[in-house]
Structures are given as structure tokens and as C-alpha cells.
């Protein structure tokens, strides 16, 4: 049998992306970022995101087909992210995908964005069972990946996601949106031991996280320093804060691996681009003799290749969507 060709679409936040896959091989992956548009407002403006997706989708899909040297007539299924994310942004992609699948007479595959992030790891050789850390702008979850389509959430954030707290701290340090990558870069020049920020919930029994107290501790530090007229060494603030976030993410993930006796770790989501997180996970896993899958940074942030990877597993299980399906902004794993 010839390979199953899937056209995948991702529009859950501020990246318009389309990818084409043949079975579990990615033939193309086009990502059009809206960051420049939203940066002027200090964060993603949902209404602008939806409109930009609608404008960009035809071109991005054409580019993905061209890069894959294929055409719509060769496509067997259209896959799309249907949640979680911004409702208008999700609807832009979902409506487009429904229209395409209907007019082509193909299957429609609805993908959970979080399953997408995990599936980026499958493209890089990760095989279940795995302990997976998903750290993004909207989520911080520890997931037991039992199979390619079987997941159990073991821990989650009780308040802010890691990326959300990083972006808020970055903003108060004067970085434009999204501040995560800039904070990460400046942290490289600072002393991680300069300021003793808290590591919330690091020693407790649960696998849950809390980042809002840590974020407040940094904001308080900045306010108090300013009020007292003290010099703020931004490099040290970035380095000390980054170290606190990374310590908690690693400690909880390793605890999950111990608790479930699993020696394969996967990290995914936008925050897994973080330089210190990647280095420290590498060090910890080699110390323990665990295998670690670190997807390339292009597959950590939102992209449609990960959606195609998830969709292929759903295709194998005959998990197709009805055309009546709605976007679900708070979809869980
Ligand atoms: O997965 P993603 O692209 O979108 C969501 O699904 O949320 O994640 C975006 C998040 C943002 O909070 C961004 O600041 C963060 O990932 N991020 C980083 C880095 N690169 C992106 N956080 C820390 N260090 C980085 N290098
Ligand atoms: Zn994401």
C-alpha cells in the first residue's frame, strides 16, 4: 500500500503552520509566525491572531504542498488542531480544514495540541513508555505516555504555566513579547546563584507545579530594589530566575520517572527550547543512565509537523472526526 499522505494545519495561537507527511515521515513544515504583529501590543491579541491565520493559511498551505512536491489531489486526510488554544484562532484552522476535507472528499482528523507537542518526540525517535514534560506558554504538564495514543496526566500547574511566568517576568524586565528567548539569552551572562528565588513545591509529594509565587517573588524583588534605589543586574535576575524554573521542572520530571520506574524522558513545548533546561536535562539523564529525547528547537514551538505526527497515529486507529466537531479552547489530555 502507498504511504498515507496527511496535510496538517496548526493555528491554535500565534503561528500559522501547515505540514505534509507520508506515514511517519515529514515532507514539509511551513511555519509563519505572527510575533512581529503582536509584539507591538506586548502579547497575543486574539482577534488579530484569528484574522492573520485566515489571511496566511492559503499561502502557507500552498508552500507546504510545494515543498513536499505534492498536490491536494494526493492528500488522504486533512488534520487540524481543534484545542486547546484561542477560540477564534482554532476556529480559523478548523473551518479551513473542514472545507478542504469536504471538498477533497478526504478524512478529517482532529488533533489535541498537547498530543501534537508530545508527538514531536515520536518524530525524533522517542518510543513509549515515556515520561514527558510539556512546558509551553499555556501548559506545564508531566505526562505518562503509555502508547502513541494513550496518555495519563500525572502533574500539572496549579496556576501559571512555566512559559506564562517567564513571559511576565521578561516583560517586567523590559523585553518585548515573547520574552522567553530573550530572557534565556541574557541569563547566559548572569550569575544563577546571585539571588535566591523560591522553588515552589519542589520538595512536596505531588507532581504538580506552581509558578505564580516564583513570578511574584521576582516582581517583588524588582520593585523593592527600585524603591531602595539599588542597581538591578538584569543578567543576574534572569539567570537566578531561569535556574529556579529549570530546577523545579527537572526535579518533578525526574521524580515522575522514579515513581513510575520509567527510564525514557521526553521534553517538549516552547519552553523546552530553553538552553539551560536542555543542558541540565542532558546532564541529569546521563548521570542516571536515562534516555532523553530533546526535539530540535523548530519542533518544540508550535508547528504543524507535530500535528501530522499525531494525526498519523490517529489514522492507524481509524480515529476520524465528524464534520460537526467544534473547536475546544480548554481541551485537556
Ligand atoms: O509551545 P509554544 O510555542 O506555544 C504554546 O503552545 O504556548 O510555547 C511558547 C512559550 C512562550 O512562553 C515562550 O516565551 C516560551 O515558550 N519560550 C521559551 C524559550 N523559547 C520559547 N522559554 C524559555 N526559554 C526559551 N528559550
Ligand atoms: Zn504549543
Concise structural overview:
By secondary structure, the protein is of the alpha/beta class.
Features:
333 residues, alpha/beta, five-stranded mixed beta sheet, 11 helices, binds 5'-O-[(R)-(carboxyoxy)(hydroxy)phosphoryl]adenosine
- Amount of helix: 40-55%
Radius of gyration: 20 Å
Q: Which H/E pattern describes the elements?
A: EEEHHEHEHEEEHHHHEHEHH
How are the strands of the largest sheet arranged?
A: 3-2-1-4-5
Spans where pLDDT lies below 50 across 5 or more residues: none
**Average pLDDT taken over every residue:** 97
Q: How large a portion of the residues is in β-strands, by DSSP E?
A: 15-25%
Number of strands: 10
User: Looking at the structure, what is the overall shape?
Assistant: globular
First-to-last CA distance: 32 Å
What small molecules accompany the polymer chains? 5'-O-[(R)-(carboxyoxy)(hydroxy)phosphoryl]adenosine, zinc ion
Task: Characterize the structure shown.
Helix content is 44%, strand content 20%. It has 333 residues and is an alpha/beta fold. A 5-stranded mixed sheet has the order 3-2-1-4-5, sandwiched between helices. Helix 2 (46-67) packs parallel to helix 3 (87-104), helix 4 crosses helix 11 and helix 8 (234-260) packs parallel to helix 9. The model has no long low-confidence stretch (mean pLDDT 97). The structure holds 5'-O-[(R)-(carboxyoxy)(hydroxy)phosphoryl]adenosine and zinc ion (ZN).
Topology (SSEs and partners):
Blueprint: E1 5-10, E2 15-22, E3 25-33, H1 35-39, H2 46-67, E4 77-83, H3 87-104, E5 107-112, H4 113-122, E6 130-135, E7 140-147, E8 150-156, H5 162-172, H6 180-187, H7 212-227, H8 234-260, E9 264-268, H9 275-288, E10 291-293, H10 297-300, H11 305-316
This protein binds 5'-O-[(R)-(carboxyoxy)(hydroxy)phosphoryl]adenosine (KG4) and zinc ion.
